[in-house]
Amino acid sequence: MDRTLIQEILEVVEQAGIASAKLTGMGLKNEADAAAVEAMRERMYKIQMQGRIVIGEGERDEAPMLYIGEEVGSGTGPGVDFAVDPCEGTNLCANSQRGSMAVLAASDRGGLFNAPDFYMKKLAAPPAAKGKVDINKSATENIKILSECLGLPAEELVIVVMDRARHKDLIKEIRATGARVQPISDGDVQAAIACGFAGTGTHCLMGIGAAPEGVISAAALRALGGHFQGQLVYDPAVAQTSEWEGLTKEGNLARLAEMGITDPDRVYEASELACGENVVFAATGITDGLLFDGVKFEKDCTRTSSLVISTLDNTARFTTTVHIKDGAQSIALR
Q1: What pLDDT is stored for residue 263 in this prediction?
Q2: Which among 306, 310, 308, 248 has a CA at the least distance from the CA of 279?
């Protein structure tokens, strides 16, 4: 990978975000996802690279669009691996709620963990707490450490947790420390990344979410110098999701073994989930969110708000792009 790819990667998430945003609030989550996937794929194929999807929409037979193992790009140039979520928060997009975005992580070939379609226990925290909080510690212990690292009383800390039945005890424990809980319905990637920036009002992400999104979050936090750890969840009794109805712990362990994961309880650091020498994270807001605005459709232009974080030049770029329509006559400055 090199710096010339950063602009093109930005355009990939911009186009996916615009395509999905056209269906915002229509209640069509699958259609919004499909629109984003097609736009992302079309732009990727124009990039001079040997690209490969390592985290996508599933296996080829299950998802014809941006499937795991699909090759993208011109077929010449640097080898790049991608973890993609063309419409992170499809329910949020369908219902015009905050936090939906088009997002991806990219790295040199072999630089992203091929996360199975499982769940993952996650812990994200600011750079000041990196290596001090630990996913094996209790929420109570981590909040005490976080308080000390940030110089804030527990009562001023905001901990983001997915609003799921499996987190009932976790939420109770967090609140017992005096810290505040911010429950979210979907889209924990943006919440994890917000932990890497001061002033967002988000200090930590705890709990269980999707494993593929964990890799994308890890890539962003690694580039920001923040803390991220992930541990795969394979026990249906822990995941507590209807998606795993009929599955067993033993069956899931067998699936992991088939995927080459011999230590299912291993705790992965950000540098292991996104281990490439060069790592790029890119996202464009579909709906308004904590880090950036959603797509705005105006008479003569379309505006997108994006974030690109890169280890290539150690930057985090917040970008507003004005996509000018043919025949435009009046474009507002803001």
Answers
A1: 95
A2: 310
Q: Are 295 and 319 in contact (CB under 8 A)?
A: no
Beta-carbon neighbour count of residue 326 at 10 Å? Answer: 5
Tokens 């994961």 correspond to 261
pLDDT digits (tens, 9 = 90+) for 39-54: 999 999 999 999 999 9
The class level of CATH for 119-273 reads: alpha beta
Whether 158 contacts 203, CB under 8 Å? yes
Query: What is the number of residues in the chain?
Result: 334
How, if at all, do strands 71-72 and 50-55 pair? antiparallel
Return the number of other C-beta atoms located less than 10 Å from residue 208's C-beta.
23
Q: What percent of the chain has pLDDT over 70?
A: 98
Q: Which pLDDT score, from 0 to 100, does residue 115 have?
A: 85
pLDDT at 252 over 90: yes
- 132 — pLDDT class (breaks 50, 70, 90): very high
Decide the pairing of beta strands 119-125 and 227-233. Answer: antiparallel
- Nearest residue to 126 via CA among 85, 161, 159, 170: 159
Give the fold, CATH level 3, of 4-109+277-324.
Fructose-1,6-Bisphosphatase; Chain A, domain 1 (3.30.540)
| Number of C-beta neighbours around residue 3 at 10 A | 12
The ranges assigned to domains in the chain are: 4-109+277-324, 119-273
Residue-wise pLDDT tens digits, 147-180: 999 999 999 999 999 999 999 999 999 999 999 9
pLDDT of amino acid 58: 60
Per-residue pLDDT for 59 more than 60?
A: no
